[in-house]
Amino acid sequence: MSDRPNILFIQSDQHSPFVSGCYGDDVIETPTLDALASSGVIFDNAYCASPICVPSRMSMLSGRMPHENGVWTNSHILDSGIPTFAHSLGAVGYRPVQIGRMHFNGTDQLHGFAERYVGDHGPNMIGGTPADHGSLEGTAGPSRVSLEKSGYGQSAYEVHDESVTAAAVEFLEKHAAALGSGDTNEPFCVAIGLMLPHQPFVARKDDYDHFKGRVPPPDHPEALTESTHPYLAWWRKHAGIEEVTQEEIERSRTAYWALTSSLDRMLGQIIGVLERNNLLDDTLIVYTTDHGEQVGEHGLWWKQTFYEEAARVPMIVSWPNQLPQGMRSTRVVSQIDLNATILDLVDAPALPGSSGRTMNGIINGQGADAWDDTIFVEYCTEPGDPAHSEGDRAWQNRMVRRGDWKLSYYHGFEPQLFNLAADPHEMTDLAGDPEHAEKREELMRLVLQEWDPELIREQIEQLTAEGAVLKSWASSVAPDDEYRWDLKPEMDHLDGG
Q1: Are 302 and 294 in contact (CB under 8 A)?
Q2: Are the CB atoms for 327 and 359 separated by under 8 Å?
Q3: Contact, 85 vs 63, CB < 8 A?
Q4: What integer is the mean pLDDT of 134-154?
Q5: To 10 degrees, the CA torsion angle through 20, 23, 27, 28?
Q6: pLDDT tens digits for 451-487?
Q7: H or E element: which one contains 234?
């Protein structure tokens, strides 16, 4: 048997860490994640690189922030010349396999993975034919309709995840059988991408009914007022969520809790294969998501902001033979640090150009005191994107957290400043408080260091112009979607609430 561990990297979509038992929610039922946290290390202050799908995922893969890899929006394409953690793992003998969600754009649908099963539901090429959600059309995006059409029924994303789970279970069972028969002695390396609990906020009736009446309302719903930060006020109006009814809040939150519970059951099926075949001790298991979900906190839904519910992510690392069990870390870390940590744990080469830092010193206690509790999160949009921008107006926003302090920079507006130790729910903006002027200036210098919003705007405009040609090409040529899961419109339906 190889000395290298098996690797199981699991990334869900839009899972708020605050809706997990191991992160303190006493209503949700996540026994699989809770057990994984008990067998490994759980990070309480982990952040994504961007609170939106593609930039976050490409940063996690490459170990580079959006401004370093040029992927700022969901229509941008990761350069195939940038090595990913899959390339690095392949370089030391693993054969990386991808199953399910990854959200690659463009002709390179592997980015270092040797094989891929059960692709994304969307087109491989930007400009390709989008998925048809049938009667739930529009509910997968940041739009009020996702709250209006919420309740019980079926989300095609749950069907997708069932296909991913079945494929993952089959792959792992075959590997275990090959180990038992002596046909292989090599460890597996599998990345699994799941869509849940991403909206539509529609769950199967049994799960929905199980949580109905049990999910509390948002702790801090916040009405839209004159004191609302102008960027956030624009976003709420643009997305149609100036006011949301109590019925919509209750239905959408109930469905989100139900979808999260369904996600955990599928994780249980996957990890159960390892348990049945005595592979858990020799497997490095990582669980995270691409960004959070606001589920009504601050009067907001989905992601697209720097509030903790959107920017923080669950992060659990388990390897019983090598890592502490039941350890909890409060250090401030990023998913690009997770990238560097995975590679360091298995002695794979560090990625050139990556700004990620290995967290192994935090985990083993030998370098925890030297850790710099500073991370960045970026969120930029492109002109002409009807979901996230308005006409030619686009946004260049960046967040920095250093220790207990967090500054959210919105280009063209005043920033927000919070002390998360004193104000963990970000209710008191200290940016205009003279007593904290020095801290504000310190973090303003830091957030704009080597990050020029006007230059980024120009670069994104160039990518938008180039993307228009690529979209027209895909629309005209209609290239085959080699790696695409067949989402059928009848898989999406709302039956009640």
Answers
A1: yes
A2: no
A3: yes
A4: 98
A5: 10
A6: 999 999 999 999 999 999 999 999 999 999 999 999 9
A7: helix 230-239
Place of tokens 């629309």: 475
Q: What is the DSSP letter of 334?
A: E
Contacts of 457 (CB under 8 A, 6+ apart): 380, 394, 396, 411
Q: Quick one: DSSP state of residue 187?
A: P
- Tokens 């801090």 belong to 220
Decide: helix, strand or coil at residue 274: helix
Q: Rounded to whole angstroms, how far apart are CA atoms 241 and 304?
A: 14
Contact 343, 357 (CB under 8 A): no
pLDDT at res. 2: 64
Length of the chain equals 497
- Locate 187 and state its tokens: 């460890």
**Measured CA angle at 332 (ends 330, 337), to 5 deg:** 120
CB of 197 closer than 8 Å to CB of 146? no
CB of 461 within 8 A of CB of 100? Answer: no
Q: Name the residue among 76, 82, 94, 165 with its Cα closest to residue 336.
A: 82
Distance CA 353, CA 378 (A): 18
> What is the side-by-side order of every strand in the sheet holding 6-13?
115-117, 97-100, 189-197, 6-13, 283-289, 315-318, 41-47, 327-334
Whether 116 contacts 97, CB under 8 Å: yes
Cα 307–chain centre separation? 14
Indicate if the pLDDT at residue 106 is higher than 50.
yes
Domains of the chain: 6-496 (3.40.720.10)
Q: What is the pLDDT of residues 11-25, one digit of tens each?
A: 999 999 999 999 999
Measured CA to CA, the distance from residue 1 to residue 219 in angstroms comes to 51
pTM: 0.97
In the three-class reduction of DSSP (H, G, I as helix; E, B as strand; rest coil), residue 203 is classed as strand
Residue 176 phi/psi, 5° resolution?
Answer: -65, -40
Burial of 429 (0-12, 13-18, 19+ CB in 10 A): middle
- Compute the distance between CA of residue 274 and CA of residue 171 in angstroms, rounded to an integer: 11
Q: What is the mean pLDDT of residues 135-154?
A: 98
Query: What is the predicted pLDDT for the residue at 3?
Result: 80
SS3 at position 316: strand
CA angle 330, 318, 275 (to 5 degrees): 145
Q: Give the ranges where 114-214 is alpha helix by DSSP (H).
A: 145-148, 156-181, 205-211
Name the residue with tokens 């401004």: 67
